[in-house]
Amino acid sequence: MALPEPSASGRFGEFGGRYVPETLVPACQELEEAFRAAWADPAFRAELDDLLHHYAGRPSPLTDCRRLSEELGLRVLLKREDLNHTGSHKINNVLGQALLARRMGKTRLVAETGAGQHGVATATAAALLGMECMVYMGEVDMGRQALNVFRMRLLGAEVVPATSGSRTLKDAVNEAMRDWVATVEDSHYCLGSVMGPHPYPWMVRELHTVIGDEARAQCSEVLDGGVPDVVTACVGGGSNAIGIFSGFADTAAELVGVEPAGGAAVGRGVPGVVHGMKSYLMQDEFGQVQEAHSISAGLDYPGVGPEHSHLAAIGRARYEQVTDAEVIDAFQLLSRTEGIIPALEPAHALAWVSRDRAALAGRTVLVNLSGRGDKDVAQMMEILG
Amino acid sequence: MSPSPVEDELTVPPAPAKPGALETALRAARASGRKLLVPYVTGGYGDDWADVVRAVADAGADAIEIGIPFSDPVMDGPVIQEASEVALRAGATPVSVLDELRRVDAGVPLAVMTYYNIAFRMGHERFAASLADSGVAAAILPDLPLEEAGPWARAADAAGVETVLLAAPTAPDDRLPRIVERARGFVYAVGLLGVTGERAALAESSLVIARRLKAVTDKPVLVGVGVSTADQAVEVSAVADGVVIGSALMRRVLEGEGPAGAARFVAEVRAALDAT
After folding, report:
1. Tens-digit pLDDT profile for residues B238-250
2. Is B260 an interface residue toward A (CB < 8 Å)?
3. Structural domain of residue A190, as residue ranges?
4. Which among A52, A104, A311, B237 counts the fewest CB atoms within 10 Å?
């Protein structure tokens, strides 16, 4: 395994842990045990693999970008998580957690969502397995991502606006945790990123290692047994990034996470504790969590998964920041050169590659294209007029 | 493999044998045959919050919980969330709340209730020292469960600050003795599955958790979360040593009833508890 397990207390170095209300401690302990058992159970793995293949459409392809590579003066490979069922990498995690929840006897899934991709994926898994589904979404994000709200409702989920604080992803997480505190006996909190209390950062990473494992084999084929020089992905909570990093952590590949400049927890935060974990966090001098600002609802989060904080602290990965304007350019660039409309989230990773093209000249860069841009087209139509 | 320095630091030290000021006061009140009443007031909510603290002290509180508002209060329902947001918008900080508390002189022990990041950001030693400097006896950090409490508890114990621990209905039997052993001041029994807020009726689970805790400790056991009225306080205090009341009080304050209204409500609960 390329990335090691967290410590017994759920830590990656000094980050992670389980900072939850006492009510949830037994549930987190049970979840850890249940996941450990399921993950070691060939029958569980076979059922999940079968769903990933026949339902989600895995393996996702690797695309060698000819025109984009030519334009940038480097070689871009895209891991096509945008082609998964529901349009992003989120489905990998959700199918695993939904199967686990069912195995634990839970009948209801609770989720938070930012851009709506995780909410749609959770609603999809709930429909597939005949479970109830409740999705919390910031009121601001419900406006930005009306199409995904409709999708979730179509799939039978209840979507509830988070109306407190910044009314974005951070507040949706608060509401989901409050729901779980009250419903923990029959509900599973289907957390959508490599964040939250132990075992979530580890469990969600494991469920996304399929991205890195596939990409490693696919790159090897394309690169005559080699690995890319750079592996990059956008980072909000950081699940798609951890998924692809996991396949290359034991190679010489440079790992680069790309954060929005207005939500750069690693780049601008200091260690803090919120949402069950110790990690880099954008906060004021008194420890009040600050509001993130990003064009992308999926990355509008002031924290980051604890393993990213650890990878940054030990220097195994580095974290770059891009602006909304650079993201808008990258969104158009990929659409125009490759006929692929990316989601605004992975457009962050592309924006960094495009901006730093001189430094990357002649190198091979693997970009995790974590989602497709259908959900963002209305927003971009407004911005680009 | 030997545990890392990080893991070593997580070891939870045993609680000091000598009870602190809060536990001593609550034990004495209980010994006098009294049921314990601990109201909660959000620090920094309104210009007159310190007057609210003094008013509920005079109205018969045995101790008072002071909330230091936090941006992301996951254990709190709508009322405390709103009070916290308003206080933060008005510029309340841990420093401003503790500064004002220093001058309050309520005459009963005070416990600060806030979230762990407030203490972590200031630094454990510094936060514990500023609580002690402000005359605060205890701290309640609802997102810092037993397993994570070690580093904070060491600093708090050294500064003479009692760390109240919560015990919830979801805890298996073997967990409760470990919680009560480390709890100082009192044991905060979470009355129901859910966040703070008023409920129409007392949850059966609050009686069950109180009974389970009373069976394993002689430390004061107070039930909070979902205790909303004088009748509910009386009902649960048949088993528990007393109650914490937050949302029902802060709703009245949010509705503009001021220190007088807060005092009226606390006096009503006090009278009902004393009549049993």
Report:
1. 999 999 999 999 9
2. no
3. 11-51+90-200
4. A104
